[in-house]
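subagent[fold] <- orchestrator: predict structure for attached chain, return C-alpha cells only, no commentary.
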Amino acid sequence: MYLGIDIGGSTTKIVGLRADGTALAMRRVQAQDPITSLYGAMGSFLFTNGLELGDVCRIALTGVGASYVDGDIYGIPTEKVEEFTAVGAGGLALSGQEQAVVVSMGTGTAFIWARAGQPVEHLCGSGVGGGTLAGLCSRLCGTRQWSQIVKLADDGDVNRIDLTVGDLTRNSHPSLPLDITAANFGNISDDASPGDFAAGVINMVLQSIGTTAVMACRARSCETVVLTGFMSNLPQARSCCDLFTRLHGVRFIIPEHATHATSIGAALSIM
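subagent[fold] -> orchestrator:
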C-alpha cells in the first residue's frame, strides 16, 4: 500500500492506495502542529483500518507542513512531492479530465494548470480561502467551527448582507442578471443575524475563488475547472458553481473525494 499524506495549514489528510491506484481508505484530522498531526493521522489511519506498518511500502508527503519532516517515517521509504504537482495530479485523476484548471481550496487558494503527462503550472494564488472564512466568522458570528458556520449559513439570508445588481438598476444585461452580487457586504441590514453574516462570508469567499478560476481558464483557453480541498464540501459550493457556469460558460467539477485530492495526487506521483 502507498500512503499519501497532505500536511496542510489547518488539517492533515491521509489516503492509502492499492498497487492498482484504487483507494483503500482515507482520513482527515485537525492539524495542531505538522509533526504531531502527521504521526497522529498515520496512527489513527492504520488503527481504524486494521493495518500495520508492514502493510505500507512507500509514503508520499506534501503540503506546507511537509517541510518540517526530515527522513523516512518509521523506516518506510518516504518521498516529498511538490504540492502543486500533487494538486494537479489528484484533480485530474479524480475528475477523469485530460486537462483542467485545478483549484485547491484550503486555508488559502491555489490555481493550477494541469495537463495529463505534462508538468503542472502554478497560475496564481489567493489569500482568500478557508482561513478567511474561519477568521471573519469568528468575529462576525462568534465561531470558527466549520460545522457551526455551515449550520448558521443554512438559516441565514445573504440578501440581508450583499448588494445585488437589482438593488442598483432595473435594467439587466446578459452577463449581469439582476440577482447576482454587485457588492459583497454592501447592503448589511441593521438587524442582520449571525446566520446572515455566515451566509455572506461564504458567498464572498466562493465568489472570489470562482471569479479567479474563470480568469485562469481564460488565460489558458480552457473551459473546465476542478475544485478540490475541504471547502469544496460546502453546500453552497455547487450553487455557486452553477451560477458561474451560467454566466461564463465554464464547467465546474467537484469530484468525489475532492477533500483528499492532494494526498491522492501525492501517492499517485510515487507509484
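orchestrator: received. Logging for downstream: The helical segments are 34-48, 83-95, 130-140, 146-154, 194-219, 235-248, 261-269. Residues 167 and 178 are 8 Å apart (CA to CA).
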